[in-house]
């Protein structure tokens, strides 16, 4: 049995060797034909510098297009809120200018309350999700996606909420929820692979 195994192995080795030999003859013939036809294949010529197969990571660049889009969205939402207040005042026979002068108290009617609740609700422009998305998207766009600026961005976001708290004399519940979601989303971005 050992003899047969050796014979079989020798036969297979000889067949493989013959195929290699035939292949190299075909390769030589093909090369000669290509040379005559003027075909040049990729080859490294001594003295030519090798090009790297890797690349340098580009420096982060502010995403001006996203910044503009976010500013436009924010301005639209702000304008919507202003219009809500103006309509509410008009229904009460008041104007923003007169309100400034007279300092009259304003009653929030049911129509304005419903509109405001919709704006602050889960799907509203000033709801927790959309507001936190805008804040995080804006921070990422400003940094150009550079996570090395994460602490600077985080500090700026915290400072913004502190300023709002100071201006309002405390943060309403929705603002605190928004702050929490901003930090969750921001941390998710910082800890993501890309």
Spell out the key features of this protein.
mainly alpha, single chain, 194 residues, elongated
List the helices and strands and how they pair.
Blueprint: H1 2-37, H2 64-91, H3 96-102, H4 110-120, H5 128-143, H6 150-168, H7 173-191
Helix pairs in contact: 2-4, 2-5, 5-7, 6-7
* Shape type: elongated
Distance between the termini: 60 Å
Low-pLDDT ranges: none
Query: What is the gyration radius calculated from CA atoms?
Result: 35 Å
Report on the biggest sheet: none
**Strand and helix order:** HHHHHHH
Number of strands: 0
Overall structural class, as computed from helix and strand content, comes to: mainly alpha
What do the pLDDT scores average to? 79
Helix content: over 70%
Report the sheet-strand fraction: under 5%
Number of helices: 7
Region (Disordered): 1-63
Biased composition (Basic and acidic residues): 19-63
Please explain how this structure is put together.
It is a single chain. The chain is mainly α and 194 residues long. The chain has a domain at 64-191. Helix content is 70%, strand content 0%. The chain is built from seven helices and no strands. Helix 5 (128-143) crosses helix 7 (173-191). The protein is elongated, with a radius of gyration of 35 Å. The two termini are 60 Å apart. 7% of the residues are buried. The model has no long low-confidence stretch (mean pLDDT 79). Residues 19-63 have a biased composition (Basic and acidic residues). Residues 1-63 are annotated as: Disordered.
């Amino acid at each position: 049995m050992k003899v047969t195994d050796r014979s079989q192995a020798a036969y297979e080795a000889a067949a493989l060797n013959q195929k290699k030999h035939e292949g190299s003859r075909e390769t030589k013939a093909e090369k000669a034909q290509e040379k005559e036809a003027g075909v040049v294949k990729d080859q490294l010529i001594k003295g030519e510098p090798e090009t790297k197969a890797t690349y340098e990571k580009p420096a982060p660049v502010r995403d001006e297009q996203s910044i503009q889009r976010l500013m436009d969205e924010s301005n639209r939402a702000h304008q919507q809120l202003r219009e809500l207040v103006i309509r509410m005042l008009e229904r009460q026979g008041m104007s923003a200018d007169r309100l400034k002068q007279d300092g009259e108290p304003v009653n929030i009617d049911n129509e304005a309350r419903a509109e405001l609740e919709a704006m602050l609700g889960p799907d509203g422009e000033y709801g927790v999700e959309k507001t936190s998305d805008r804040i995080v998207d804006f921070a990422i766009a400003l940094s150009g996606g550079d996570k090395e600026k994460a602490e600077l961005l985080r500090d700026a976001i915290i400072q913004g909420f502190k300023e709002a708290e100071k201006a309002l004399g405390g943060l309403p519940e929705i603002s605190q929820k928004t702050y929490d979601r901003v930090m969750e989303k921001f941390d998710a971005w910082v800890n993501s692979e890309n």
